[in-house]
Amino acid sequence: MRAYPRCAEESGFVSHHQYLEEYNPMKKSLSLLGCALGASLLFSHTAAAQDCETITLGSAISLTGKYATNGIHAKNGYEFAIQKIKDAGGVQFGDKCYNFNVIYYDDESKGDRGATLAERLINQDKVQYMLGPYSSGLTKAIAPVTEKYQIPMVEAEGASRSLFNQGYKYLFAVLSTSEQYLASAVTLAAEKADDPSKVKVAVAVENDPFSLDIRAGVLEDAAKFDMQVVIDEQLPRDLSDMSAILTKVKLLKPDLLIVSGHSKGAATAVRQIGEQKIDSPMVAITHCEAADVVGNFGAAANDILCSTQWAETLTYEDPLFGSAANYEKEFKEAFPEYKDKSVPYQVAQASAAVYVFKDAFERAASLDKEAVRDAIAATDMMTFYGGIKFSEFGNNIAKPMVLRQIQDGEYNVVAPSEFASHPLNWPRTPQ
């Protein structure tokens, strides 16, 4: 059971729809009574919390469809941060305090639905501040809507660099942009080769803005070393079978295999790489943790390189969440379903997005959305997730990407070298 209050009125993140699904109306009065009687115990360290007003945020997020796994991770990260802020006394400025409440709608992993829901949140629900959806594609669909209505949106899950060359003034992203995701893998391959120009690279990505940016970044980095790109293909649309591409991999024997297809693509890649006994010396993919490739495929995932925005072993910390390791510990206590696996970075960066809003409201000392927008633009803070500072285009320029390698079932940071906790296993040993 999650460590959250069990009544909707006391929970800063439970929407009306969730309340109807999760709470039995026959028990409502008893539940409310229990909350009233237990409030002083639950929030004794923040006695004023019950008097806090509400700041409503909106989010169209993927709870069903092909992005549901990561959409749920993001929502859990939002909810954890909201409760953490509430427990710490809320958002405070002037003589008042505020707790966040989020109205969520399921975008079903569809861009057109996401845009429609963003309109609904703004026009019907009167939301003045937005948390982002999951994926670059969905963010790209929603950003024109929030820009049109001048609604500040802090997003955590859309990394495509194409989001930040549109001149948006109300879009801010806490995560590193996508072309950086697997740059370290190309550099590692060059370091291990006697002659980098002899390195053969295979690239297989989903046809979406995020993955296409990763492809562009890999090709640019490979060109710097005069590497040979022997395979450059798109994954099948449903992401369920990449066996035809892997047949070419077996034939052409690339030294580095790059795959990007969100959670479903990661699961397909690891499963079929194992089934087809692909022996490429270096394999790097995205979304390992979100797809739980270790839990689902065991030894087949060993020695695979995984790009990550964040790791619990990094030395980041802040006054609210503490260290990166403490964040992981407390999150797992609140969400026991993550107990036996690494907390995906999608969770952590979602919490960081909520933290940015808290910081901005307190610096703005206002509920005026333009004042809040300006405060977000001026963000310069260190968090458990890393540094957050926005360029004039809205992307975070204060935090690097890292690479982790799955070593005997553990995710260990191996690059860049200044963040490495373990040496790289190379060449990879197929299982």
- Main sheet overview: 7 strands, mixed
Distance between the termini: 37 Å
- Provide the residue-averaged pLDDT: 89
Count all strands and give the number: 17
Please give the CATH architecture of the largest domain.
3-Layer(aba) Sandwich
Number of helices: 14
Oligomeric state = single chain
Strand content: 15-25%
**CATH topology call of the largest domain:** Rossmann fold
Fraction in helix: 25-40%
Number of domains: 2
Secondary-structure-derived class: alpha/beta
CATH top level assignment of the largest domain: Alpha Beta
CATH superfamily of the largest domain: Response regulator
Shape: globular
**What is the spatial order of strands in the main beta sheet?**
8-7-9-10-11-16-17
Rounded to an integer in angstroms, the radius of gyration calculated over CA atoms is 22 Å
Uncertain spans? 1-49
Report on this structure:
By secondary structure, this protein is an alpha/beta fold. The protein folds into two domains: 8-172 and 312-389, Response regulator (Rossmann fold, 3-Layer(aba) Sandwich), CATH 3.40.50; 179-311 and 402-419, Response regulator (Rossmann fold). Helix content is 39%, strand content 19%. It has helices at residues 16-22, 28-42, 68-87, 111-123, 136-148, 183-192, 209-224, 243-252, 262-275, 288-291, 293-297, 324-334, 345-364, 369-377; strands at 53-61, 91-93, 96-106, 130-131, 153-155, 171-173, 200-205, 228-234, 256-260, 282-285, 305-308, 317-318, 322-323, 380-383, 386-389, 402-407, 410-415. The strands form five sheets. The protein has a seven-stranded mixed sheet with strand order 8-7-9-10-11-16-17, sandwiched between helices. Strands 1-3-2 form a three-stranded mixed sheet.
